[in-house]
Amino acid sequence: MKLYNSYTQKIEPLEPIEPGKVSMYVCGPTVYNYPHVGNARPIAVFDTLKKALEAQGLNVTYVSNFTDVDDKIINTAIEQHVSEKEITDKYIKAYNQVRSDLHADLPDVTPRVTETMDQIIAFIQELIDAGAAYQVDGDVYFRVDADPKYGELSHQRIEDLMVGARIDENDKKENPLDFTLWKATDQGIQWDTPWSKGRPGWHTECVVMIQNVFQKNLIDIHGGGLDLKFPHHENEIAQCEALHHTRLANLWVHNGMINIDGTKMSKSLGNVWWANDLIKKFGGNEIRWILISTHYRAPLNLSEETFTAAEKELKRIQTVLRQADVKLQLADAPVDDAIDEEVFAPFMEALNDDLNTPNAIAVVFDTVKKLNQALRVREIDTNKVNALKNTLNKMLYILGIEFEPVQLTEADKKLYQQWRACVKAKDFEKADQYRAQLQEKGIL
Question: What are phi and psi of 199, to 5 degrees?
């Protein structure tokens, strides 16, 4: 597997720190509202990556967090006169439902900020003790000058960042680029610390969770949306460099953003599409297919045409799988788990090339064509059909597409034979009646 490393701006081989095992952390959502389709893209991208790695025998530990402490969460709780936990539990449930509807596996570990607070506070104290952070009036800031490499992930010079930095009046920070590790506050959920009663800044939590779950300071893959590259991921690296002299992950992998009809999706523009609404309208398969149809690093444009095309493409795949199920069961053919390795190999080659899902999808359609050809002969080779069907299903599993297999009853088989007999006898009126019944059962 080779992946584009945002840190080096090169496609590099994945070389697991521990042979045979891959440690992967993906930044999760701040849970104050329902997930939009932008939140759904990393779900699909990194689940596909995980499944592709597992298909090659690698043991993947996948961790993704929930940020359940944030000003937006506190404000929402105040507006609704409920606790922060009621808000976050509600939206974590909604987020996990979207994950399930998109046929993505739950991460192995899903830490919450509120459950990691002792470790976060201890980590901030370590940064202070190391001279990489300082406190002023109960607030704690990270000293960006403590990391000489600051800006290497986003490939920006500190001098340029300084020019664009926003300097508040009466700013307590030594440097306008210094960022908050702890915020003193008397509003909303808060914790006692040596500095003040308050809550953590955003940029520390993921560093602590990675160290807490993996018990090490360097993992194989850190992922998330491109919008997290700066400042969030840059600031994560800075803290890890200051204490442990590592960049936290060997490979930094970022998925591109989503556009709606050619315009960037943005709450300020009012063009946000909610993931659960799209799934209800079009189905989990269709949304997952769209999310992986474009290369993960490229922007993904959504439009009505996008959904129409996805529906047609998936129908084409589902139809040939149904036909294979029907033909194999009508032939009472023995089936096994054998796949056609020669057909499957180009699919994995595409995914190993920086998770090139468009090329992998091209192999899927090539396999659909091969399976169609195998079904259109007078007497099918059941072993060949079975192997091609299994191969196609294995590809779809990795891509996160699920179809219910057709299970014929004896009555279904009889109905199918009656339909074929009427077609052969050119009794098209009866044939149409039988065909309608078969279609209603999902057999044709």
Answer: -145, 160
